[in-house]
Write a structure and sequence with these properties.
This protein is α/β, with parallel strands linked by helices and 431 residues long. Helices cover 29% and strands 26% of the residues. The chain has two domains: 3-18 and 239-428, Enolpyruvate transferase domain (UDP-n-acetylglucosamine1-carboxyvinyl-transferase, Chain); 21-222, UDP-n-acetylglucosamine1-carboxyvinyl-transferase, Chain, CATH 3.65.10.10. It has helices spanning 21-32, 47-58, 97-107, 128-137, 168-177, 196-208, 240-253, 271-278, 311-319, 340-350, 382-391, 414-420, and strands spanning 3-7, 11-16, 35-43, 62-66, 74-81, 91-92, 114-117, 140-142, 149-152, 159-162, 185-189, 214-216, 220-223, 233-235, 254-259, 282-286, 289-293, 301-303, 324-328, 354-357, 362-365, 374-377, 399-402, 424-428. α5 (168-177) packs parallel to α6.
């Protein structure tokens, strides 16, 4: 297990955020379902994106990396066949929940066995909403819990019922698959929809690739059948969930310009800018991006329902803000790569923070004087690792992070970017 030892310092300079992993998945899948060649540029080749490309190959879609117009990024040329097919190869999703949930319904289009495997905690993440649908449609799957799981059968058009308080990934997965069915379909959302912004990302990607979906105020989605995805050349936008680390870092102890995150983005994680500003964060427009400067932060109420991925680093900011911060509607963080509610509270408390963990919330008693430092675990979770790196900026003593390599899941160049901004650290296994 790799470790980093970070010495307290301020960050300064400009960082180009990775491309959006959320949009990268969606662009690649839509291109894979089109007949012909598409080129998707500005891709940060994280482990999760690699998993999606690998699984699409197992579903009969070939792709290759080509030269990118963007420094440090990749372009992917995708040879779509207009559909998917069972090749006999396993769909190895590694630890990517997006890959598994986006592609499982496509596996149920093949009419032949398709096996999905995974690693880490992926097998613990719920799939029951799909299994309920498969039961109604006569699609076989086994086993009923955990991974690997093999699906066999063929989805049919019709009515599909999903609760709105489960992961939006289930809705997105159906939205990718249903246009390829012969008849018209309808997705019925039975409870208020959470993570609406992620559904918006899917709808935007589908529209871009020529697919029509009628959104009835997020209560139902009407999907005409017999549609064909259209090839596109596309550029993936910057990732607000990664920009969050640098904006928070700048507000805590720095002078950081964060470039590449579009303010007009549909990503729900763009809320990080407004939340930090509400807390007193000095964030302003700058040449090529947003400038975040050392700020005097104060507590607030943060609703995690539509932006769960930025909660760990916002908890870091809250830990050194004046007053109390309440993070609400955060229960979904317990079923990520780790139990992020427990992980972020436990690890920050090791550094000297004062955080109370509730069933679906956190109560953070801010310590504006800063934190102590110490040894923490990344919990094999990229967002916990990067949040601990940001926390080191407000510590009096060094911070040692065990499992620092976990950043490669979504941000393989994180430590390089941290160093370029002036972060001081050393790596090794014997720190």
């Amino acid at each position: 297990m790799a470790k980093v030892k970070i010495y307290p310092s301020a960050l300064s300079g400009t960082v180009n955020v990775p491309s959006s992993k959320s949009m990268g998945h969606r662009e690649i899948i839509c291109a894979a379902l089109a007949r012909g060649i598409s080129v998707i540029d500005n891709i940060s080749m994280s482990d999760d994106i690699k998993a999606t490309l690998r699984c699409l190959k197992a579903l009969g879609v070939q792709s290759e990396l080509t030269a990118s117009r963007f420094k440090g990024r990749s372009a992917v040329k995708i040879y779509g066949e207009g559909t998917v097919r069972a090749t006999g190869d396993e769909c190895d999703c590694s630890e990517s929940g997006s890959t598994l949930r986006f592609l499982l319904p496509l596996g149920a289009l093949c009419g032949a066995p398709v096996t999905f495997t995974g690693a880490g905690r992926l097998g613990e993440r719920p799939l029951k909403p799909y299994y309920d649908i498969f039961d109604m449609q006569g699609v076989k799957y086994a086993p009923a819990q955990g991974l690997p799981v093999t699906v066999e059968g063929r989805l049919h058009s019709g009515k599909f019922t999903l609760p709105g308080n489960v992961s939006s990934q289930f809705i997105s997965g159906l939205l990718f698959a249903l246009p390829l069915l012969e008849g018209d379909s309808e997705i019925i959302i039975t409870t208020p929809l959470e993570s609406q912004s992620y559904v918006d990302l899917t709808l935007a990607a589908l529209k871009k690739y020529g697919i029509k979906v009628i959104n009835n105020n997020y209560k139902t989605f009407t999907v005409p059948g017999g549609q064909k995805y259209q090839c596109r050349n596309a550029v993936v936008e910057g990732d607000w969930s990664q920009a969050a680390f640098w904006l928070a870092a700048g507000c805590l102890n720095g002078n950081v310009i964060c470039a590449g995150a579009e303010t007009a983005s549909l990503q729900g994680d763009r809320a990080v800018k407004d939340i930090l500003q509400v807390m007193g964060g000095k964030i302003s427009a700058a040449d090529g991006g947003l400038l975040a400067q050392t700020s005097r932060l104060h507590g607030t109420v943060i609703d995690a329902a539509d932006c769960p991925d930025i909660i760990p680093v916002l908890t870091v900011a809250a830990a050194v803000a004046e007053g109390i911060t309440k993070i609400i509607n955060a229960g979904r963080l317990r079923i990520k790569e780790c139990d992020r509610l427990h992980a972020i509270s436990e690890e920050l408390n090791k550094l000297g923070a004062d955080i109370e963990e509730k069933a679906e919330s956190l109560i953070v008693h801010g310590k504006p004087e800063g934190l102590r430092g110490g040894v923490v675990s990344a919990w094999n979770d990229h967002r916990i690792a990067m949040s601990m790196a940001v926390a080191s900026l407000v510590c009096r003593e060094p911070v040692i992070i065990e499992g620092s390599e976990s950043v490669k899941k979504s941000y393989p160049t994180f430590w390089q970017d941290f160093s370029c901004l002036g972060g001081k650290y050393e790596q090794g296994e014997n720190l």
